[in-house]
Amino acid sequence: MCTVCGCATAAIEGDKSRAEAPGHAGARSDDHDHHHHHHDHDAHHFPDQHDHHHAEDGSVHCGKRIAGVHVPGMSRERIIQVEKDILSKNDGYAAENRAFFVQNGIFALNIVSSPGSGKTSLLVRAIRELRDRVVINVIEGDQQTSNDAARIREAGARAIQINTGKGCHLDAHMVGHARQDLAPEPGSILLIENVGNLVCPAAFDLGEAHKVVVLSVTEGEDKPLKYPDIFAASDLMILNKSDLLPHLDFNVGLCIANALRVNPRLRTLVVSARSGQGMESFCAWLEASAATLARRAKVA
Question: What is the CB-side half-sphere exposure of residue 106 using CA atoms within 13 A?
Fold first, then answer.
């Protein structure tokens, strides 16, 4: 994770009317801006100041010890304690979010990937295919702009944008404020598109039912081995951009095998958000999972 990372201030869109899809009624009038202070730290990585060791193959490993970074003026023990405090506080907010989602039968997913994997295109395609059968809302996370939230609204779903600024991931506190503003309907699906990053989001529970990691076939079969934490934390891997496979030297079987080495319980779907190939399986999983959770909420 981003040990005592550089995440600073996050801003959530204050105009709730902008969360509405075109033609969607029900915008509220109590508009206000949220500015949330995530864990402030001045230092991140200082390449000339951290402990490391050299492997036999010549690789330099900086993250094998108890912290992996130095922060001027802070001992390793203090760094670890700060990190534990951050995660503990986040887990408390995540528990609040999860309780809200479960009580209201809201099926929440944390969608994670590297930048450019096609997360937003995947969500847009799913929204268009499911919008007549189930209500879908979206929380969008990016460092800057509301471009992706605008795309989601054009597809027919309500969306709210979180801009993390220097932050490299969403946290449960941000998501808690966003879901309060978005007010997702009971029995709906909430898709949380995290900031494009395969490292830091792995450590931060948002209160979701599942993490879904999206991997583009343009990224290489060894990505699960290079970034194991995010694949170990996920329940579903979506191999996106399958329409490009005829033009690439990409081994789907090897990629899945590598992912299973990291996480033997990881399920994989091969899809193309552009062509629609494989999307029926993803949409069926979304719809069935949401229906199951909604039924449980009614029984409870």
Answer: 24
What φ, ψ does residue 195 adopt, rounded to 5°? -60, 140
For 115, the domain range is: 83-295
User: Domain tally for the chain?
Assistant: 1
| pLDDT of residue 296 exceeding 70 | yes
Classify residue 156: in a domain, yes or no.
yes
Burial class of residue 193, CB neighbours in 10 A (0-12, 13-18, 19+): buried
The residue among 159, 168, 150 whose CA lies nearest residue 10 is 168
Of 68, 56, 139, the C-alpha closest to 101 is 139
272 touches 240 (CB < 8 A):
yes
Q: Judge whether residue 165 has pLDDT over 70.
A: yes
Residue 171 near residue 204 (C-beta atoms within 8 A): yes
74 Cβ partners below 8 Å, 6+ apart? 4, 82
Residue 48 resides in a domain:
no
Q: Classify residue 40: in a domain, yes or no.
A: no
Distances (CA, A) of 159 to 39, 71, 240, 269: 25, 37, 22, 25
In this structure, what CATH number is given to the domain that contains residue 280? 3.40.50.300
Domain membership flag for residue 291: yes
Expressed in angstroms, the distance from the first to the final Cα of the chain is: 36
Question: What single string gives the DSSP state of each residue in 122-165?
Answer: HHHHHHHHHTTTS-EEEEEEESS-SHHHHHHHHHT-EEEEEE-T
Q: At what angle do helices 119-130 and 147-155 cross, to 10 degrees?
A: 20
Give the model's confidence band at 60: pLDDT under 50 very low, under 70 low, under 90 confident, else very high: low
What's the pTM value of the predicted model, to 2 decimals? Answer: 0.80
Q: Which amino acid is at 47?
A: P
